[in-house]
Amino acid sequence: MTEATPAPTQPAALDFPLVRRTGYLLNKAGSILMEDAERALMAQGMRLRYFYVLAALESDLSLSQQDLSRLLHLDPTTMVALIDEMERAGHVERRRNPSDRRRYILRLTDGGREALERAGRAVDAVEQDFLSAVPAEDRDRLRSLLGDLLADRWPRVVACE
Questions:
Q1: Cα–chain center distance at 38
Q2: How far is the C-alpha of 19 from the C-alpha of 24, rounded, in Å?
Q3: Rounded Cα gap, residues 38 and 41, in angstroms
Q4: Which domains does the chain have, with CATH numbers?
C-alpha cells in the first residue's frame, strides 16, 4: 500500500484567515517591496517617490507637475517641493508649456537620466530578490494581471502640447 503524500503546509506566518483576502496580500506584498526598494534607494541618497518621478519622466509624454501628482497619487504641494528639490539637484528642468503659460512641462536632464539608471538598477535588484521564489513566466503574468486590474482605474494623464 502506498502512503499518501501529505498536503503542503503554509508557513506559520501565513496560517491565519486574513491570507485568504487578496487585497490584504496585495497590500502586504506591495508594502514589503516598497520598504525594500526605499532602503536600497536611501543608500544612494534617494527616496522612492523621487525615483518614481524620474521614471515617469522617462516617457515621451510631456507631463506637468499636476499630471505627475495625479499619476503618482502625491499631494500637489508635495509634488512642487519634490520638483524643486529635483531641479536644484540638476535632475529635472521646468519648461513653460507654450499652449498654457500657467503650466510647466517637466523634462529629465542628462543628470536625471544618469540618476534614474543607477536607481533603476537598485530597484530592479530589489524586485528580482523579492520575486525570486516566483518563476520568471509567472512574474511576467503577475505584472500583466496587475496591469489589467489597474487599467481602468489609472489616472488619466493628458499630455501637454
A1: 11
A2: 7
A3: 5
A4: 43-151 (1.10.10.10)
Cell numbers for 72? 503618482
Quote the pLDDT of residue 160. Answer: 46
What number of residues does the chain have? 161
Determine the Cα–Cα distance for residues 39 and 114; give it in Å rounded to an integer.
Answer: 19
User: Quick check: 115 and 30 in contact, CB under 8 A?
Assistant: no
Residues near 130 by Cβ (< 8 Å), separated by ≥ 6? 32, 33, 36
Which stretches does DSSP call E strand in 63-130?
Answer: 92-97, 100-108
**For residue 63, how far is the Cα from the chain centroid?**
17
pLDDT band at 2 (very low <50, low <70, confident <90, very high): low
User: Cα(69)–Cα(53) distance, rounded to whole angstroms?
Assistant: 9
- The pTM score is 0.82
